[in-house]
Amino acid sequence: MVSSSPCFISTGAAVDQVVLFAPQETIRMNRGRLGEFYRRLGDSEAEDIITRAVEALSARLAQCQRLYRAGRLAEMRRNLRTQIAIADQIGLQSVSQAAGHVLDCVERRETVALAATLARLLRIGDLSFTELWETRNLSV
Fold first, then answer.
1. CA–CA separation, 124 vs 25, rounded Å?
2. What percentage of the chain carries pLDDT values higher than 70?
3. How far apart, in Å, are the Cα atoms of 37 and each of 6, 92, 104?
4. What is d(CA 133, CA 81) in angstroms, rounded to the nearest whole number?
5. Which of 19, 46, 84, 104 could form an SS bridge with 38, CB 3.0 to 4.6 Å?
6. Would the pLDDT of 8 be above 60?
């Protein structure tokens, strides 16, 4: 289990008590899919494809956050579908699932849930990239 940085939430107007909120996420990756890339393409080409996919996914995560802030939900929907496809291609199951949850919120126009699921997607993206690099360094 990987955890992210804690954040503090006030429980009322007068802060009598601070509640520590430290979301923890279990990152799921399809290591078999990564191994398949390396076996089929060789180390160099597999590294190149995975690196480009991660860069594209990272850029789309950042763009998704900007689209959310601008209220551009139609563009956000397209962005999320692309994120799901890229994440599935390289075996980042947690990212794919979290992006699907955000997409559901966009389609239902559930604004509170959208904010929460987007924050979770960004957190899972960061954690997944870290775990992916660590896995690759251990040679898939």
1. 7
2. 81
3. 35, 13, 30
4. 24
5. 46
6. no
Residue 16: what pLDDT?
63
pTM, two decimals, is 0.80
Taking the C-alpha atoms of residue 104 and residue 118, their distance in angstroms, rounded to an integer, is 11
**Pairing state between β 24-25 and 7-10:** unpaired
Radius of gyration of the chain (CA): 17
Q: What is the DSSP string of 39-69?
A: HHH-HHHHHHHHHHHHHHHHHHHHHHHHHHH
Inter-axis angle of helices 73-90 and 93-108, nearest 10 = 160
What is the DSSP annotation of 82-95? HHHHHHHHHT-HHH
Question: Once rounded to an integer, what is the mean pLDDT over residues 68-90?
Answer: 97
> The tokens 């360094």 sit on which residue?
137
Question: Tokens 């992006």 — which residue?
Answer: 99
